[in-house]
Amino acid sequence: MSTLNEAQRPFDIAMVVIAALSWGTIGVAVGWLYRLTETNSLSIGFLRLLLSAPVLLITARMLAGPQAFRIKPRHRWVLALIGGAFAGYQVAYFAAIPYLGVAAAVLINICSAPIFTALLARAFLGERLRPSTGLAIGGAVIGAGLLAGGVPQVHSTNDWLVGAALALTAGFSYSLVVLGARLVAADYHPVVPVALSFTLGALLLLPAALSTGLAIDYPPLGWLVLGYLSVVPTALAYALYVRGMRTVRATTAATISLLEPLGSALLAMLLLGERFTATGIVGAALLVASIAIIARR
């Protein structure tokens, strides 16, 4: 990880950029799956975790060595929280897409996570919430509301409420992942909590996916998309991100991560034909600007 006196290497910054851009393709890939075949958010979330878990476990073992999975007893409940929260994040995020469309669901989900993280860190970790951060949070909330209301794909108030609630639930769930990871980050290689949480998340989702009808009847292109979801924006992206964070500062990485929702929104417009109204564009701009302020802080 970087220190205050260590220069940020352009190659490492490029690794973080590539990771953020690849994460931005997740929403579009899921939206494409919904168009290819009959499926549901539980099935997609479970299969993504199931297929990516072996790759992440092998990666963690290679990077962290023989001691990779020796977890301290006091950290087991934290990893259980991370796994459960990540499973909930997957389902809520993917379920929001049919209601709001990819672009709005991704923006609300990804941009609400830093807000929830700041509030939870203030409440449970005692981290200071600066006045500028508080104003940015207010701007982000307003931006999210304008964004969700400015999406032509939303055909009813009920769709708007359900979609926004699901996207915000995903953001809240991811904030729990961030806080849990922060509690154990000093004791393990960064890939280890990710690998274990994905594996546990798959196990937690298995009963629910089976009870609601696990969708496995995908066309070849559908399985190709699932394979892409599991390897490129998951295992590979996390490996690149961890590699880049050797010298990239946390503030720089947080700002670069804004490429994810922006890239996802642009891809949804180009590949899926999604559009924003003028209100949605204003909301998206306000949301991203607010999160940029939080990231800078």
Helix content: over 70%
Hey, roughly how much beta strand do the residues contain?
under 5%
Distance between the termini: 19 Å
Mean pLDDT: 81
Low-confidence stretches: 1-5
How would you sum up the major sheet?
Answer: none
H/I helix tally: 12
SSE ordering: HHHHHHHHHHHH
Radius of gyration: 18 Å
DSSP strand tally: 0
Instruction: Give the overall silhouette.
Output: globular
Q: How is the topology of this model organized?
A:
Blueprint: H1 10-23, H2 26-36, H3 41-64, H4 76-100, H5 102-125, H6 131-149, H7 157-184, H8 191-211, H9 220-244, H10 250-256, H11 259-271, H12 278-296
Helix pairs in contact: 1-9, 1-11, 2-5, 2-9, 2-11, 3-4, 3-8, 3-9, 4-5, 4-7, 4-8, 5-6, 5-7, 5-11, 5-12, 6-12, 10-12
Quick overview of this protein structure:
With 297 residues, the chain is an all-alpha fold.
Give structural attributes:
disordered N terminus, 297 residues, mainly alpha
Describe this structure in words.
Helices cover 77% and strands 0% of the residues. The protein has 297 residues and is an all-alpha fold. α2 packs antiparallel against α9 (220-244). The radius of gyration is 18 Å and the shape is globular.
